[in-house]
């Protein structure tokens, strides 16, 4: 059995990890996204449920949500992972982390708690090359949040080779793996349709700028 759950942020790394897992012969079965404690947007990227559901529909997959504070995150994650592992007869969990060892340790820990093997298809890849490979593979991602080093003007921008060069000239990691920016994938060759969104406003929370997005009928 090689059914996998994908830890799904809606961004480029989780989507590219999903794609790589497909290439490795694993079978996508369900997506998992963690919302904030209010359930109005995703915990990590600030994306709303309708947009995440639209991505899942484009992949022809179910998506499972749960709300959580950061404090209860691990406990809730393990609980829901166990339920999904049984309901979907899962054997693996796919994550999009690249080279932060503490993240991998956590993912292997929670996966093991649910009897699953953690798969990290992007692990130890060169950060810049991974972004370039993602672009070459046809994934289209836009910036939905970024820190103050980048500033709000980058919100809504598409990740392409020119913006990667701009980031590097600013001393910003090309992949945003240090939390400089987060993305939303709006199209990919394995989506059955494009996700149409529009930015209605920009907001700031702590040290982060967020694009307030609305789903648009295509």
Automatic annotation (TrEMBL):
UniProt entry keywords in alphabetical sequence: Ligase
Pfam families given in the database record: Diphthami_syn_2
Organism per entry: Flavivirga aquimarina
Class in the EC hierarchy, top level: ligase
Lineage, uppermost ranks: Bacteria, Pseudomonadati, Bacteroidota, Flavobacteriia, Flavobacteriales
InterPro entries attached to this UniProt entry: Diphthami_syn_dom, DPH6/MJ0570, Rossmann-like_a/b/a_fold
CDD domains the UniProt entry points to: AANH_PF0828-like
GO molecular function: diphthine-ammonia ligase activity
Name of this chain's protein: Diphthine--ammonia ligase
Recorded superkingdom: Bacteria
């Amino acid at each position: 059995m090689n059914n996998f759950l994908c830890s799904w942020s809606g961004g480029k790394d989780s989507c590219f990890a999903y794609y790589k897992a497909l290439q490795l012969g694993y079978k996508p079965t369900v997506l998992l996204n963690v919302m904030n404690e209010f359930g109005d947007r995703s915990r990590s990227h600030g994306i709303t449920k309708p947009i995440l559901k639209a991505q899942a529909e484009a992949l022809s997959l179910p998506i499972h949500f749960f709300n959580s504070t950061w404090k209860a995150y691990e406990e809730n994650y393990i609980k829901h992972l166990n339920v999904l592992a049984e309901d979907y007869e899962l054997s693996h969990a796919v994550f999009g982390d690249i080279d932060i060892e503490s993240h991998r340790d956590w993912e292997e820990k929670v996966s093991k708690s649910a009897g699953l093997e953690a798969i990290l298809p992007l692990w130890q890849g060169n950060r810049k090359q991974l972004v370039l490979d993602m672009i070459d593979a046809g994934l289209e991602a836009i910036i939905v949040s970024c820190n103050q080093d980048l500033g709000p003007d980058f919100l809504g921008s598409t990740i392409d080779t020119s913006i990667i060069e701009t980031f590097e000239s600013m001393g910003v990691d090309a992949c945003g793996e240090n939390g400089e920016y987060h993305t939303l994938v709006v199209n990919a060759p394995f989506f059955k349709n494009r996700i149409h969104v529009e930015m209605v406003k920009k907001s700031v929370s702590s040290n982060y700028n967020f694009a307030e997005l609305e789903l648009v009928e295509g």
